[in-house]
Amino acid sequence: MSNSPYGSTWRALRRNLTGGVLHPSQLKSFSHARKRVLDNLIAGLEHDSKDNKAIYVAEHFRYAIFSLLVLLCFGDNIDDNQMKEIEVAQKESFLSYQRMKLFFIMPKLGKFFFRKLWNELNNAMINCNNVFLFMVRSRKQEISARKNQESLSYVDTLLDFQLPGEEGTLAENHIVGLCSEFITAGTDSTTSALQWIMACIVKYPSVQAKVYEEMKAVLGQENQWVQEDDLQKMPYLRAVILEGLRRHPPGYAPATPHAVTEDVELGGYTLPKGTAVNFLIPDIGRDPNVWEHPLEFKPERLLKSDDTSEDDSFDITGKGEIKMMPFGAGRRICPGNGVAMLHLTYIVANLVWHFEWSPPDGEEVDLTEKYEITISMKRALKACLSPRFK
Questions:
Q1: pLDDT value at position 159?
Q2: What does the entry list as the binding residues for heme (predicted)?
Q3: How much is the average pLDDT of 44-53?
């Protein structure tokens, strides 16, 4: 969908996504699936950090976010073995795609001189496609029982999707492509954002203490889990999430290039129709003309003002003045911004509620950036986790 030109098909696909599995009412029906993933995440972190051992947490985060999106995509009846199979297949396919760049430069010569490598990489991508195809067909076989299911998955909506006009339904290969895009696009960006936010929480203990005290005031000391309904009562937690996205957005520019559809004037320059325009997302969120001390991590700046009922400084949709745009803006804003915020807030809350986070002895959290598919940490987050519940 991200590569589709703006038109009736793109509008219909986006409407199907935002009005289907990403609609707030449908997201709520997956709350038990999120709790299942959270249980596994907390258990994995507890196991690996025994005896206050410092651990790298990025892979734990990545698998949790990946699992959440797989369950949204294929339904919450996916078991752990199937989850692992999908993960392995997609990871091998992604690595193969990265290594295939040689063949994009010299397609004919590359395939001739490196035939064995070509076959190996191509087979990995075919295997991933087959795994996704099996999941789609398996879900299709359950379609008659859907009325007994509370949760409508993404693939359910695609199986019923009608293309605009008289073009019929989506072919299986198109459904596979949309499912793969749904999982891949959300996993990398949200994982990167989660690691950055937790890195700031580890680096700034006063921020962590304020988050914990706010949660304690809402939950008391007996509850061992932060429930999704509790999150609305935690404005400082939300401010921490937003400040993390402002200071360390996961993308440097929108993943999909944007082009003007007609000649326009911008900043004194004439941009001819078809000119590609990139928005430097980090620079917008760090503009010193908009943000005081923009390189500092100050969640308080994103709390509502005492004298106003609404503070537009944390509008991340671009409906008003654009002061930060971690999910893009305009009609092609990331349709998953709502679910990403839910996942980030829910997971960060429970990570801080269950553990006291600190850097390893003698080490500091390095916030140096590295530019890959997303803006990631040059040195992956390593932390000591002390359980708050004995």
A1: 92
A2: 334
A3: 92
Which domain range does residue 72 map to?
8-76+150-387
Whole-structure pTM value? 0.89
Mean pLDDT for the stretch of residues 62-76: 96
Residue 281 has pLDDT above 80, yes or no: yes
Task: Report in angstroms the alpha-carbon separations of 151 from 27, 40, 89, 222, 361.
Answer: 8, 21, 25, 31, 45
Question: Where do the DSSP E strands lie in 237-366?
Answer: 258-259, 264-266, 269-271, 276-277, 355-358
Round to whole Å and give the CA distance between 261 and 57.
43
Question: Into how many domains does the chain fold?
Answer: 1
Would you say residue 84 lies in a domain?
A: no
Q: Is 105 a member of any domain?
A: no
Q: Is 280 helix (H, G, I), strand (E, B) or coil?
A: coil
Structure tokens at 268: 């004194």
The full length of the chain comes to: 390
Contacts 24+ apart (CB under 8 A), 363-366: 364/203, 365/199, 365/200, 365/202, 365/203
CA-angle at 342, arms to 78 and 377, nearest 5°: 90
Of 28-32, 163-167, 173-177, least confident by mean pLDDT is 163-167
DSSP state for residue 309 in the 8-state scheme = S
Take residue 117 and report the two structure tokens written for it. 């490598």
Degrees, nearest 5: CA angle 187-375-324? 95
SS3 150: coil
Known binding-site positions for heme: 334
Asked whether residue 17 is assigned to any structural domain, the reply reads yes
For every residue of 192-219, DSSP letters joined together read: HHHHHHHHHHHH-HHHHHHHHHHHHHHH
- State the pLDDT confidence band at 1, using cuts at 50, 70 and 90: low
- What distance lies between CA 371 and its chain's CA centroid? 17
Report the DSSP beta bridge partners of residue 355: 387
Whether the CB-CB separation of 368 and 378 falls below 8 Å is answered with yes
pLDDT digits (tens, 9 = 90+) for 250-279: 887 665 667 888 999 988 899 999 898 888
Amino acid at residue number 35: K
Name which of 297, 357, 339 is nearest 183 in CA terms: 339
* Average pLDDT of span 94-103: 62
Q: What's the CATH code of the domain at 332?
A: 1.10.630.10
- What was the pLDDT predicted at 310? 45
List, as residue ranges, the binding site.
Answer: 334
